[in-house]
Structures are given as C-alpha cells and as structure tokens.
Amino acid sequence: RELIKAFRYLSDKGQRSEFELYLLHHFKPFLTQAKETKRLVEEEDFSSLYRECRLIGSFIHGEYQYHNILFGEKDAAVVNFEKASPDTCVKDLYYFLRKAMEKNNWDEELFVAILESYDKEKTLSTEEKKQLYLRLLYPEKFWKIVNFYFNSTKSWIPVKNMEKLNALIRQEDIKQSLLNKYIF
C-alpha cells in the first residue's frame, strides 16, 4: 500500500527532481515485484511453521545483522536484542542474508557459503525455504528507499539516496538469479 501511495504521489507530482524522475522511471518493476510477492505469500499457508515455532518456544533476535555481532579473539557475541520476539528463525536468517548480500553485491560464493553454513547448524524445511525465498523476493530495500523519501521533506534529497537506488538497481538481476538458482 505504501509503495502504491508513493507511486501515485510521484506520478501526479508536477515538477520533479532528478532523483524523483529516476525513482519514477524504475518504480514499476519493483512495484510489480512487490505485488507478485504479496500474491505468492497469500497463496502459502505457513500456519504449521508458526505453530511449530510456538510449540518449541522459538525466539529470534529481530535485527540479526553484522552490526549486532561483536567479534573477540576467540568468541563472538550478539548484542542489541530490543527487537527480539517469538518468530521463525527464517526471519533472522533473511535479515542477515539480505544485509550481507547487499553489502557484497550479492556475491554468489558468499551467498552459498552462508546458506551452507546455516544448513550445517539447522537444515531448513521446505516451508522455511519458501518463506526465505518470499522474504528475499520482496523488494524491501526499494521500499526502504521509497519510504525514506516519501516520509521526509522533499525540498532536499540526499545524494546517498541516489547512490542506494543505483546500487539496488545494479544488484537486482544478480539477486533474482541467486534466488532462483539456490533457493527455488
């Protein structure tokens, strides 16, 4: 809904900045992808996965990413549990994987290494793989860029926004290829 609202705003806006023109030019494929992901999620039934999480008392970090992992000489510690909640472990895996991949241009070796390392500790069920795929399929980074733009003062748009959008657009085909090759 937020993407549709932002798209309508940009489409109806008279004079647009360079960033707004660029964003609008690339909006439709990401909006289509978001709608398709929503449709696919609605076709799935993850109730047994969530029921199992409740039964075993599964808790997640809620923002598991490299910023929240401190490495010592021999050990590592995870910090900042403010968003911890009962949920499926796939959510933490998704968050870590997406952030790591974005920072590493969706490097195939790293992608495979993370999935294989995770699999050594916990093998994902078919249902969990579907959920991971759908989470990664949704254009969250695009939504974040649009959301930041839409909820900010539009008189000055940081150059960093254009850089983030450019990086996202460059990485999108690589991301889609990896998802199709390794998850589904």
Furnish the topology, listing elements before pairings.
Layout: H1 2-12, H2 18-43, H3 47-56, E1 59-60, E2 69-71, E3 76-78, E4 85-86, H4 89-103, H5 108-121, H6 126-137, H7 140-150, H8 159-182
Antiparallel strand pairs: 1-4, 2-3
Helix pairs in contact: 1-2, 2-6, 2-8, 4-6, 7-8
Walk me through this protein's architecture:
- The model has no long low-confidence stretch (mean pLDDT 91).
- With 184 residues, this protein is mainly α.
- It has helices at 2-12, 18-43, 47-56, 89-103, 108-121, 126-137, 140-150, 159-182, and strands at residues 59-60, 69-71, 76-78, 85-86.
- The protein starts with a helix and ends with a helix.
- The protein is built from 8 helices and 4 strands.
- The relative contact order is 0.15.
- A two-stranded antiparallel sheet has the order 1-4.
- The radius of gyration is 18 Å and the shape is globular.
Can you give the helix content as a percent range? 55-70%
Distance between the termini: 27 Å
What general form does the structure show? globular
| Tally of separate helices | 8
User: How is the largest sheet built, in terms of strand order?
Assistant: 1-4
SSE string: HHHEEEEHHHHH
> Strand percentage, roughly?
5-15%
